[in-house]
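Marked as duplicate of an earlier ticket. Keeping the data here for the record.
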Amino acid sequence: MSAERSPGGVLLFLAALLVEQVSATVRFWLLGVPVGLLLWIGPLSIDGAGLAGNLAGLAFGYGPLCLASAHLLGLPGGALLTRLRLGARHPSERESEAIGDALAGLSHRVRGPRRLFVVDSPTLEAFVVGRVLYLHRAMIWDPALPAVLAHELGHANSHDGRMMLAAKRLVLFEARRPSGLLVCGGLSFVVLGPAWDAWMRRRELAADVYAAALGQADGLAEFLERQQLFDVAVPLMEGRQHPYSEERIERLLAFADGRPETDGAVAA
């Protein structure tokens, strides 16, 4: 079972690639020119120093953009880096059994995650990067696990997971200061921030419909109702990557009731 595609996400990624050319060029000159000079005037005076410097600069400067594009086209990867950053681990035997039972209860037509890791956290969260699923420990033992898994598989079995993996590879290291953004990347998330947020909100609604199609509309609505306490109003939805829970609950319940207004509820 495949989820809805998001052609708008590809255009957004191409715009991000264009913006990130600034950081890539800065990295190229920061590494390529110094390396070339060192090899040229250094004690070894290597022939072809300029070429070596250019190649090093290209790899350091534009390598992340090339890798991000490859991930968007379907290159798997990223699990190790994300796992190390999160301190995630493989699920235990009993956790694997609980997750397996929840996945088995969805549908035989559903393609599961490529890999799965657990984050030791008491919060009820789950997310995918590429086709790798990350579950917070508390989520495994929550009765809403099947509904949340169905939602996350909506991301994993669409373009969303690849988009998130590709977007992460645009950035060498997370930075907040302008100088850090120029070197490490991330300018596109500042310049295109509202567009990224709007795209994520649309994809959350699309993943909700995927979960509803697997019979999890009521379960996901109940879970969102419990989590509604953490909703915070944000002017102009700035920085908010999830629609308000009440909006999602209303759509899910409409889907469960078979009301026709849900047909146009999700835009890719």
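See parent ticket for discussion. The beta strands are 115-119, 126-129, 132-136.
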